[in-house]
Structures are given as structure tokens and as C-alpha cells.
Amino acid sequence: MLVRRLVIVPRHILLLLLSCLAFGCHKAEPPASSANARIAHPGFEWLNDADPERDLDAALARGDRRFIQCMGVGAYTPRVDHSEPLVKQRGVRPLGIGATDYSENEEHYRAIQKALDYAQEYNTLLLQKLKDAKPDA
Asked: Per the domain annotation, does 119 fall within a domain?
């Protein structure tokens, strides 16, 4: 009886290991909503053609030197410390996507992430340009 139990246990372990190898080592395919896929969530379609550097240059040409502000639990300027004097001096403008700390579904989450990436890049570029510019810029 003892010999029979020793043989049964290893079979179960072997089956478990084979199951793990068969199903656990499967390479997952990237989701259809990869980072390069176009944004389709309502209100975020503008991100498909958005270019932070181009948009910043256009804003500066219009005299708009405000940083982009996002909303989560509170308002914040991505990649720029809220105590940065240039933020206080130049002001902020809302990104206009609603709250960034809640998503309705995977597509909405992906759209929010792309919008936050945009805001981070825009603010980083603006901060650098303002710091490099003359004090009266």
C-alpha cells in the first residue's frame, strides 16, 4: 500500500507540471489595443494626430505659454513640480479629458495613458524652452 501511494503522488505532480508547462508557458499575443493602435474613445480622437512638439510651437506662436494641467484626485501638471515658479508665472490650461484616475474600460484607460504621455512631453518641452528663453519671453 505504501508503494502504491508513492507512485500515485508523483503521477499527480507530473500531471500538474505538464499542465503548467502546456498552459503556463504560452506566449501571450499583444492585445489588439496596443500602444500604436488608433484611439477611438469619444473625446480622445485628437490624440491620433497630436504631436506635443508641434502643438507647443503653435501655442508659443500664439503667445500661449501655459502648462497643461490634468485632473485626478486633484489638479496637477504632469512632469512639472507644482511649486515651479514658471508654472505659477505662466499659468495652466486643462487638458480637457476629464479625470485621469478613473477609466471606464481598457480603451478608455489606453486613451488616458496616451493623453498623460502627451501632457508630460508637452510640459517637459515647455519648461525647457521657457528656462532657455530670455526672462521676458
From this structure: yes
